[in-house]
Amino acid sequence: MRPGSSVAIITPMIPETGAVDIEGLRHLLRYHVESRTDNLCILGTTGEASVLSMPERELVLKTAVDEVKGKMPILVGTGAINPTSIKAMTQQAIDLGCDASLVVTPYYVKPPQRCLIRHMTDAADWGLPVVMYNVPGRTGVNFLDESIAIASEHAGIVGVKDATGDLSRVDALRKLVSDDFLLYSGDDGSTADFIAKGGNGSISVTANVAAAAMRDMIAAALDKRFDEANEINDRLVGLHNKLFVECNPIPVKWAAKRLGLINSAFCRPPLDEMDPIFESQLEDALKQAGLL
Asked: What is the pLDDT of residues 38-81, one digit of tens each?
């Protein structure tokens, strides 16, 4: 895994059948290679992984390996409540040639901190480097800094994606973990400030539709060219906000279709395509970003 811009990539689908649009996925992957995206994060929340079967995951991962292996690291979402499921998804990712696992804290069951630590270290024992994922707004449990630091002592745990938006955590975590431990923002709106405080990049929804801009903004911030980073980010603020007018990935799929990156904004149930009342807001944000 590299510092920089990692796209939490959407999974395009065919509305008539609900099947994964593999040619559409290939087009997206090539767009990210051309845009010099630093890392690919596939089969995460934004990729609707929770409604994909294991054979569908295999198809998606084979496509990703075919298109980007050796061009950017492939981080695969393997998080679940059941460790047995994580083990099976991790082994699949290993067999297909992927590079790392993104493991979310177990959702709904709210494990105590000692169980979160064990959950992550067990996942790291199964053979892929692990990026831990803390997103209490979705899971109902907050992985505390001290617990993240304990888990980070495992040689197979290489980073954390923090989607709390709490910038005070960056300083605290940086002091508790090794210098080569990767801190990724999971909150697009605060990524520039996250890096200024010691972070290493982001795992981004916005990068789905503004890949080059996110890559350039993060590269500037990592190089401490903060005026340049903020200038780029100012154009993206509307997108950071409006891509969440409804539950992710509903708005970003609409935006990707509007830009011609995918053929359909279809989301599998229980999600749906974006409510048309939000279209003008997304349109304005895309224009502000210079994408239309």
From this structure: 999 999 999 999 999 999 999 999 999 999 999 999 999 999 99
Determine the pLDDT at residue 51: 96
Enter the pTM of the model.
Answer: 0.95
DSSP 235-291: HHHHHHHHTTSSSTTHHHHHHHHHTTSSS-----TT--SPPGGGHHHHHHHHHHTT-
For residue 207, give every residue at least 6 positions away whose Cβ sits within 8 Å of its Cβ, in sequence order, or none: 5, 6, 7, 8, 32, 37, 214, 215
SS3 of residue 170 by DSSP = helix
Give the Cα separation of 54 and 15 in Å (integer): 20
Known catalytic residues are: 133, 161
Helices marked H in 142-205: 145-152, 168-176, 191-196
Domains of the chain: 4-226+261-270 (3.20.20.70)
74-77 and 157-162 as β-strands: parallel, antiparallel, unpaired?
unpaired
Single out the residue of 233, 179, 234 nearest to residue 202, CA to CA.
233
